[in-house]
Fold:
Amino acid sequence: MLHLILADSELETVPLEISSDKSIGRKARKRGRRPTELILDSNYFHRPMKKLDDSERRGRPDIVHVCMLTALDSPLNHEDFLRFSVHTRQDKIIEVDPETRIPRSYNRFVGLMEQLFLTGEVPPENPLMKIEDATLPEKVKEVKPEKVVTLREDGERIRRENLFRELSRKDDLLAIVGGFPHGEFLSDVHSLSDQIIRIYPKTLEAVTAVTHIIQFYEEEHLENSLFDG
Amino acid sequence: MLHLILADSELETVPLEISSDKSIGRKARKRGRRPTELILDSNYFHRPMKKLDDSERRGRPDIVHVCMLTALDSPLNHEDFLRFSVHTRQDKIIEVDPETRIPRSYNRFVGLMEQLFLTGEVPPENPLMKIEDATLPEKVKEVKPEKVVTLREDGERIRRENLFRELSRKDDLLAIVGGFPHGEFLSDVHSLSDQIIRIYPKTLEAVTAVTHIIQFYEEEHLENSLFDG
Structure:
């Protein structure tokens, strides 16, 4: 099983300190929410966000959206060999059931995240996503994987064979990918990881890291059964 | 070089026959455009779109967006071995320069597409995307590739080695992926293709086909130089 965690993701609700901003207030009224119930989105709240620490990287639900879309549609997920979860800057963990259908529309996805932060699980009738308080080390401990790797542009260049050495399809490999646009992990990934690896020597988008690690795993463990004739 | 064409993509402006719809008119006024200058979006124009032929598959700029985002951030593109283009239902071809930076925000992307359909190229000061009238066969003829493959769920299961047999890195492989949510290609891909292949026996999203064919090519032609130590 491949456990993929999008870590330190920039997904959060509007912080109290900017919740009295007029443009956020207008959007909240329009959506029938309190300002602090809205998902922080740098694309809409660029100006008020300037008051926040780390403002240049926060408010990026789009990164979570595109990573979820691609991860959940992968053959690896269809074959039930993937567990995808999201860890956020505020140490929340979103568990995503492999059967979840992610809204294709960005606005609907953000609406779903709003509801998730508000109620703790979505959809109400048959919850497929749940959000809980947990740090990245707590999540890793819960999975108890045979191996933990983190993807970073300054990681080690490795051969695919080495990544999977001594791991069978029954073993749990946990891969950590940063869910933020640039900068450093906020969590201490070094102490959690057996290996820090890279797939390319330049900065890549989170989604590119996600699709590549998934496909490495597919080719290692599903290729004979699926891709080849 | 890998030439990747997202074919029969459901990207178009609002057709004349539904342009007098009130909800479309409101959105057009808000954006300072004529109704027929807006990009058709099934998420916003679901009701008026019911009058259109093939209404259940049309108006999907989100598919083009996520495919462009992932294709242009791939190591293959960074290494200048990818040419990505979009062919649409109305036989328009969008040529995308490998250096193009695609807006992460869906709404900004749709705004950019609006401008592209209106002016023929974007951004104005230094055009990186151009749109022209051309059918899929015309585009294939222009590329003159050594081999053409189309990805379809009912295609042939193949080994990666066979896909690339007799092709060197200097040769042009052209891969066709459907840029629509479901149903059949509108273009006659059979007569254009040397091989119809599949990467998985079930229906996949366009983005999953895009990321997989790109990574196959990367592993065949870039692996020694990039991925391995």
About this structure: Residues 20 and 173 of chain A are 44 Å apart (CA to CA). The first strand of chain A starts at residue 2 and ends at 9. The mean pLDDT of chain A is 94. Strands of chain A lie at 2-9, 82-88, 92-96, 121-122, 129-133, 147-157, 173-178, 195-198.
